[in-house]
Each structure stands twice: as structure tokens, then as C-alpha cells.
Specification:
99 residues, four-stranded mixed beta sheet, Glutaredoxin domain-containing protein, redox-active center
Amino acid sequence: MDRVMRMSSEKGVVIFSKSSCCLSYAVQVLFQDLGVNPKVHEIDKDPECREIEKALMRLGCSKPVPAVFIGGKLVGSTNEVMSMHLSSSLVPLVKPYLC
């Protein structure tokens, strides 16, 4: 879990993803469209993939990917991010991290 916490704080917006996950891709595109360049960790390319998935679940992710962290804090997965975007609460949260 320490490694995941370290990784989640590498940049203002961090996304844990899998290279084949279309929802992860959609979340990445959303942030890029908002002018944010997130740090993306494709965990399926990491030898410790299972441990990372377990740590993300222990942190409160309903599904291991996509898992979005903003300012080092877990925001959630696709549902939470899209809900925040639709309610206009995502942009103020990412404003400090705009390119």
C-alpha cells in the first residue's frame, strides 16, 4: 500500500489504469480535454499488478481500475469522476493542475 500511496502522489492527477481498459482510456481523455496531463500508471505492465490492485481495493476503490487520485487523494473510479464532471465539481478540483 505504501508504494501505491507514493505513486498516487507523483503528480497532481494520477490514474491507475490497464492498457486494455476502455473506461481508463475515457477517463484519461476527459482529463486531457480539461487541460490536465495526468500521470498514468498502467498496472498490467507492472510485475506487482496483483498487489497494486489489492492495495487500491483496500483504499476504497470499487474496482481496481481506473482509480483516480487528485492531489494525492482518492477520488474514485469512472462513475465518481464522471459524476463530478457533470455536477461541475471536477474542474475546480483540477484547476491547480492545469497545463
